[in-house]
Write a sequence for this structure.
């Protein structure tokens, strides 16, 4: 029987849970393993935890709490590190070329290029149904629905062919970007020091995630998943993860060639955007086939 991983709110703080048939079981209480009380604890022992959870799924289906009565948090409320792929969909690359009035670049594989990433801090994570309050600071905040890979084993110098072996599962992320906060004022547009990535990408709430982690074995091919995003029920993105320029394997291999990836690290694999700004009071819903949906609001 299949299961999903969640973090949920309790009187003792965030707790790791497993969802089976719309019921949520506290993993630590269910297993007798207090080190599984948090999602980071579960992922730190991922291969063993996965075996235990699969064996317990039938029993969990008849126990636990109704999902509708549980307040879900981000699947990993405080991830280790969040690596975000830049300009990783053909649609996004074309959009950015048009925006900056420059020629469309060729497939980077033909130029010998590798994936590149920026970082969001763990404090940027937002939970399902959270309200993101940066409206007073940014007038051109936009969205990107993205597949997020969750690392479940330490990964260093892994090959492209073996890279997905290090993924525990996948969740949905929304890369919110404050476009008008991404370039430093009073600095020449030609200066290499003009960009301000932290302000642009890492404000509070800039990484809504959820509603859960689906184990990698339940996803199958992560590069054939439909992906959509709506703003106020108007569809803004409709694509497929197969449109990645650098796939998840390539991203993990490249990152692990520079730094060890640890359980609980996350890789947001990129997306594309249509350069429309969110407005106060908007609702943003992101969806991935095989995973579910995650929705947040923009503060009025």
């Amino acid at each position: 029987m299949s299961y999903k991983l969640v973090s949920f709110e309790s009187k003792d703080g965030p707790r790791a849970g497993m969802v089976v048939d719309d019921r949520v079981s506290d993993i630590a209480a269910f297993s007798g393993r207090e080190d599984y009380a948090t999602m980071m604890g579960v992922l730190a022992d991922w291969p063993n935890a996965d075996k235990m959870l699969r064996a317990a799924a039938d029993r969990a289906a008849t126990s636990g709490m109704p999902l509708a009565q549980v307040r879900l948090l981000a699947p990993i409320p405080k991830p280790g590190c969040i690596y975000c792929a830049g300009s990783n969909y053909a649609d996004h690359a074309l959009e950015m070329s048009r925006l900056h009035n420059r020629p469309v670049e060729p497939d980077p594989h033909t130029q010998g290029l590798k994936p590149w990433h920026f970082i969001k801090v763990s404090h940027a994570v937002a939970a399902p149904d959270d309200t993101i309050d940066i409206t007073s600071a940014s007038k051109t905040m936009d969205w990107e629905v993205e597949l997020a890979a969750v690392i479940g084993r330490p990964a260093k110098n892994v090959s492209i062919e073996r890279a997905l072996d290090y993924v525990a599962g996948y969740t949905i992320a929304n890369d919110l970007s404050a476009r008008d906060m991404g370039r430093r004022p009073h600095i020449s547009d030609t200066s290499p020091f003009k960009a301000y990535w932290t302000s642009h990408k890492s404000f509070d709430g800039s990484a809504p995630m959820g509603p859960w982690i689906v184990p990698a074995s339940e996803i199958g091919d992560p590069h054939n998943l439909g992906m959509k995003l709506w703003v106020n029920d108007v569809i803004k993105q409709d694509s497929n993860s197969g449109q990645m320029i650098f796939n998840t394997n390539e991203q993990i291999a490249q990152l692990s060639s520079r730094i060890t990836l640890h359980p609980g690290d996350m890789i947001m694999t990129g997306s594309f955007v249509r350069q429309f700004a969110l407005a106060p009071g908007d609702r943003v819903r992101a969806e991935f086939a095989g995973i579910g949906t995650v929705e947040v609001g923009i503060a009025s």
Q: What stands out?
A: The domain at 82-298 is CATH 3.90.850.10 (Fumarylacetoacetate hydrolase; domain 2). The chain has two domains: 4-69, 82-298.
